[in-house]
Design a protein that fits this description.
By secondary structure, the chain is an alpha/beta fold. It has a domain at 81-275. It has helices at 2-9, 13-30, 32-44, 49-70, 87-96, 110-121, 137-147, 159-170, 203-211, 250-271; strands at residues 84-85, 100-103, 127-131, 152-156, 174-177, 188-193, 196-201, 214-222, 229-235. The strands form two sheets. It has a seven-stranded mixed β-sheet with strand order 1-9-8-2-5-3-4, sandwiched between helices. A two-stranded antiparallel sheet has the order 6-7.
Length: 289
């Protein structure tokens, strides 16, 4: 498997995206459960047939481009170079020195964001990205090697990882999260996502409120014909509510914070619905911790 991945890592991005589109459609054709989730979730999001079909191919492209991203030499820049829109928001947040939490859903080439951030901003403040280690030992080792780069650290989805991220924020550093990832039971609340209750992590809002860190939204759009990617940074459409508005009811406060985060993710997804992973099992029950 490692030989195949290394061979793929040396292919052109156009080749990988073409291969990935085919893989995406194969997965859709072979899995009834996956087809059902894609259709149901896209319908909740109000997504039409054309965007839904495009999302099937983009899901495969996401997988196919991973060898190129993960096996890239640590000192070698991303190719092609990634243009940024709204990078001034990151500059301002880093200058404030309170820490920065960058949020992105399972949208577009979200794996590119951390590496592109490390190249552009990592010398000023590194990013610590939360990830859930793979079950297979060989893949877990590959993930760890690939994601630890200059200006980029990783934190496992565990209590130790949370502590690591909080320390980073208190030092004025940056944290990257996928807040539409379903957390283990007890680490989230049920909040609306495209009109349906989804178990949603409270980590993003708790860290921001606890440390005073800035929250920013990031979208990495995959460009056509293997041209690369483009990152757009947005401010939060609405601020997190303060605990004082809930009279000491922490559960109500965290539920509303999660709803604000989910609405922010919906805002991002609507910018590029054809690249969201509509087949992601977003509405599943949380697993036991």
């Amino acid at each position: 498997m490692s030989t195949l991945l290394r061979w793929l890592s040396r292919r052109s991005l156009g080749f990988l995206h073409g291969l990935g589109a085919g893989l995406g459609w194969c997965a859709y054709a072979l899995s009834p459960n996956y087809r059902r989730r894609v259709r149901e979730n896209a319908a909740l999001g109000g997504i039409g047939t054309a965007a839904r079909r495009a999302a099937i191919a983009h899901a495969g492209r996401l997988v196919a481009e991973l060898p190129r991203l993960w096996l890239r030499a640590a000192g070698r820049p991303l190719e092609p170079a990634v243009p940024w829109q709204g990078a001034g928001l990151i500059d301002a947040a880093l200058a404030a020195g309170r820490g920065l939490v960058m949020l992105s859903p399972h949208l577009g080439a979200f794996e590119v964001i951390a590496q592109a951030y490390a190249e552009r901003f990592g010398a000023r403040q590194p990013m610590t990205a939360l990830y859930r280690p793979a079950r297979q030992p060989w893949l877990r080792e590959l993930e760890t090697t690939a994601r630890n780069r200059p200006g980029l650290l990783t934190a496992p989805a565990s209590l130790a990882g949370v502590r690591q991220m909080i320390r980073a924020l208190r030092q004025g550093q940056t944290v990257g999260l996928l807040p539409d990832q379903v957390p283990p039971e007890g680490l989230g609340v049920w909040a609306p996502f495209f009109g349906r209750p989804a178990y949603t992590m409270t980590l993003a809002s708790r860290m921001a409120l606890q440390t005073g860190a800035e929250l920013l939204l990031t979208l990495c759009e995959r460009l056509p014909h293997g041209q690369g990617w483009r990152i757009t940074v947005h401010a939060m459409p609405e601020p997190l509510p303060r605990a004082t508005a809930f009279g000491g009811d922490d559960a109500a406060h965290q539920t509303e914070c999660a709803a604000v985060i989910n609405r922010a993710m919906e805002f991002l997804i609507r910018q590029c619905p054809e690249q969201y992973l509509w087949g992601y099992h977003r509405y599943k029950a949380p697993r036991a911790p």
